[in-house]
């Protein structure tokens, strides 16, 4: 028996950016930590670069497993998808009933459900934990969204809560980690977190385009974002926007943002969010617009052809009072951001019902207040509003509804001005349309139903009596009772 055997309290597999920093975080919290990576050179480098962590580094997976105390606790932090499955398949024969595997990667929640079932069949615990915070968060405290059986969470909950970010709460320091729900619930919530992240960044991009259109330089816009970060918009993404805009390219002397190719990448979590919204019939168009905007940005053929063929205003925004316009944009950004949160949280609520998860939306908002990419001052208010009442939508919360009412005139002015100036604002305008759509006492869906009945006998219901009806459009146009065909 080697001296390593059974001496580590936690093991981390995957020594790229996230795994190595998470392992250091465990070590910093006093946990004896074992590390392993498919490619040994990375494990070796991490152990060598961080002697203070006193890692138990193994080249062989079996040796890594043996180095853990029982029941073994293992966090997988590898490339999501095939990498996770390969790691799990390699682990299963090495583990014993009662061991706990945590997948901290950005897994698709349906994969997590499948994996949880598979590991359960081997009497192994599986916790699918969404983790957000990037490199710094992983090291200093991320937001962690764990899902799995409550029993499985008991084995790893304290450790995950220990390494998570902390926020001040009424009862002292609160961890940004809480049990979310069974099987894929944690990864579902992380997926929606990322969908909101996409929307947040799209709105920020639109705000920057508008400021630029009104004549502000990148440095001036950086000042504006820094200023915004001191108020209601206080958030990590607004803070780093100011830093990115202030960065000058060493080679050209231009603002860095002007030399970065305007084609946004994406790894899939935003797309999954929208696909799930579509599957569940949840309107999340502002988030969808953010995904489509990235897709459009990365469609060079489409953009080249359209740029050559289409004419219109050139994005210059005529502004009489620059300060007033900047304030309007701030309000439009805040209101749109609220809509993205409302759409994302509504999606979580509907999914919880559909998948049988008992998700506490207030708790989700609470653990997003620090550590994660979408952390924002607004989340305090959102958490309090959900805690105060069982909201169907965030938009009905009194402080949110009044904030949106206050921002309304500015939001509408910005959407109108941008449209007239030819500044693309798919996020702002979609968010505003959502606001108008869901508050409308009556929508144009009545006409849609009439049309569907006309061409396909799809039937309709009436506002004034029970039942389902069809108009005999191709005959005498009388109305008959009909079977509901949806
Ligand atoms: N980067 C970020 O900011 C964030 C990432 N995440 C998620 O965390 C996880 C880790 O992310 P990150 O640190 O960026 O690393 P990557 O997503 O770049 O993945 C690299 C790691 O995965 C391992 N790996 C890849 N394929 C396999 C395989 N088939 N079998 C075994 N191991 C494999 C690599 O091992 P090897 O060295 O041998 O190639 C390496 O350790 C991912 O799921 C990611 O989506 C979550 C939040 C933020
Ligand atoms: O999970 C994250 C933060 O919470 C990652 O930063 C996210 O994967 C980035 O996504 P994309 O590459 O699609 O922009």
From TrEMBL:
One of its GO terms (molecular function) is phosphogluconate dehydrogenase (decarboxylating) activity. The active site is at residues 190, 197. Pathway: Carbohydrate degradation; pentose phosphate pathway; D-ribulose 5-phosphate from D-glucose 6-phosphate (oxidative stage): step 3/3. Substrate binds at residues 106, 132-134, 193-194, 198, 267, 294, 452, 458. Residues 186-474 form the 6-phosphogluconate dehydrogenase C-terminal domain. It comes from the Bacteria. The keyword Oxidoreductase applies. It catalyses: 6-phospho-D-gluconate + NADP(+) = D-ribulose 5-phosphate + CO2 + NADPH. It holds the Pfam family 6PGD. PANTHER family: 6-PHOSPHOGLUCONATE DEHYDROGENASE. Catalyzes the oxidative decarboxylation of 6-phosphogluconate to ribulose 5-phosphate and CO(2), with concomitant reduction of NADP to NADPH. Homodimer. Belongs to the 6-phosphogluconate dehydrogenase family. This is 6-phosphogluconate dehydrogenase, decarboxylating. It comes from Propioniciclava coleopterorum.
